[in-house]
Design brief:
Largest sheet: none
Oligomer: single chain
Structural class: mainly alpha
Shape: globular
Number of helices: 11
Helix content: over 70%
């Protein structure tokens, strides 16, 4: 699936090639480095794109999906092999997220600018709440959402998790990250939070090529910034996974909360001012 997406993207790049700037490549490196350590890349990338005005608002969801797809595929190969998780749980949640992504990408590629701004603004504010909960966990020492040692879900909880994963897969196409909600979901359901890594990375590695190919065919992304995310992101994933492995991330998470709140608020403000767009 990743190879099929790459072929589709390369065909488009051959017609619309844009050389990524050093800043765009650096954004790919930094966001994917911390993505590999569990912070997530969509919200921070959106915030930087908005702060530096690198990508038009209506092209941000497609650029995020296209640019981060191949680094996430590399993450998935790494974490599915080094972290143990129940195969049935893994495959059901991945399948549910794929269905959500297929539905979501078809809708997002046809949305006007104002509705994309509204969706992303609300999603970023929700993401800031999830980041805050993660930070409070770290400060408390005793997690607010305590996971246990389970590496899989029993049928009833798995069905509930599948519905949630479907919704998260659809939201991913709006540029709303999957990682933090997935980690909280599995912890609430009694799984070890570490099991979230192969689930969330495996899900994104399967659903993002599908969604991204649709953004490419619809020409709803920025080629240069997307290429920068990929070129900077793949080496960052390898360094984070095999060399750094873990860092004290709480202070960085608080910075992310502030930046994401700002970006979400500015998107909502732009959407409310932009009442002349078609509904």
């Amino acid at each position: 699936m990743a190879a099929g997406f790459a072929a589709t993207w390369l065909r488009d790049l051959s017609r619309r090639f844009q050389r990524p700037s050093l800043l765009e490549t650096l954004v790919g490196f930094v966001t994917n480095f911390f993505d590999t350590l569990g912070i997530g890349s969509f919200a921070p990338t959106t915030s930087i794109f908005r702060l530096k005005r690198l990508v038009p608002d209506e092209e941000i969801p497609g650029t995020l999906n296209v640019g981060h797809t191949l680094p996430v595929v590399v993450q998935a190969f790494i974490f599915v092999t080094i972290v143990q998780v129940d195969t049935t749980t893994l495959m059901v949640l991945i399948a549910a997220s794929i269905l959500g992504s297929v539905l979501g990408a078809g809708v997002v590629t046809r949305l006007p600018r104002r509705k994309i701004q509204l969706g992303m603004g609300i999603g970023l504010l929700a993401a800031s709440v999830l980041y805050t909960l993660n930070n409070l966990d770290a400060m408390r020492g005793t997690p607010l959402f305590p996971g246990v040692d389970a590496i899989g879900l029993e049928p009833t909880l798995l069905a509930i998790a599948a519905v949630i994963s479907f919704v998260l897969g659809a939201l991913l196409t709006l540029g709303i990250g999957y990682y933090a909600p997935c980690m909280i979901m599995v912890s609430l359901m009694g799984m070890t939070p570490r099991a979230a890594f192969p689930i969330m990375m495996g899900a994104c590695a399967v659903l993002m090529p599908i969604a991204s190919a649709r953004f490419v065919r619809a020409l709803r992304y920025a080629p240069g910034p997307a290429l920068g995310l990929t070129l900077g992101g793949i080496p960052a994933v390898l360094i984070a996974a095999y060399i750094v492995k873990e860092l004290p991330l709480t202070a960085i998470r608080w910075l992310v909360v502030v930046v994401v709140l700002y970006a979400g608020a500015t998107l909502l403000r732009a959407a409310l001012k932009n009442n002349s767009d078609p509904q």
